[in-house]
């Protein structure tokens, strides 16, 4: 496990994370070795083990970093929307933005998910990280809908599961058939109508 703290540790950790993403995307999570990650980052195994206990822990750090960055970008974009323009269509537009670099992350996280399905311990750990991501997504969605004068008629975290499934399932199809289904196309087309069917106005609460 990580020991102590030095001024170089954050830079070392960041370099290992960046190298891991590239290495996992190129070779696959299972096939990639710690040595390959260290070589790509320009560090020794000692530097690796002073930051991470295992390849699985390295992936989970990548998962958290990616989730936090994605959620922060979406939150900033949502907060920048003027109150009078907080529509479901605007939400769908912002949620449909998929950066080109997302393909590498999709390859890595999909393979780790398959690994977790086969390994109960990995599944338990991944589920905890997934739950934190969904909770943050649910909170952000609830806040944006409130600005639009709306609320979900289903539990927000259940809807967050649906959003994750829509994104991941859509990307799987997009990366196979990018011309037929550009990344984010399903969100742009269906997210607003879906939300419209599963939300109600604040003013109707208690009048049903």
UniProtKB/TrEMBL annotation:
Residues 1-25 form the signal peptide. Pfam families: TetR_C_6 (PF13977), TetR_N (PF00440). The keyword DNA-binding applies. This is TetR family transcriptional regulator. SUPFAM superfamilies: Homeodomain-like, Tetracyclin repressor-like, C-terminal domain. Residues 33-52 bind DNA. It comes from Kitasatospora viridis. One of its GO terms (molecular function) is DNA-binding transcription factor activity. The keyword Repressor applies. InterPro entries: BetI_C, Homeodomain-like_sf, HTH-type_TetR-like_transc_reg, HTH_TetR, Tet_transcr_reg_TetR-rel_C_sf. It comes from the Bacteria. Keywords: DNA-binding, Repressor, Signal, Transcription, Transcription regulation. Residues 10-70 form the HTH tetR-type domain.
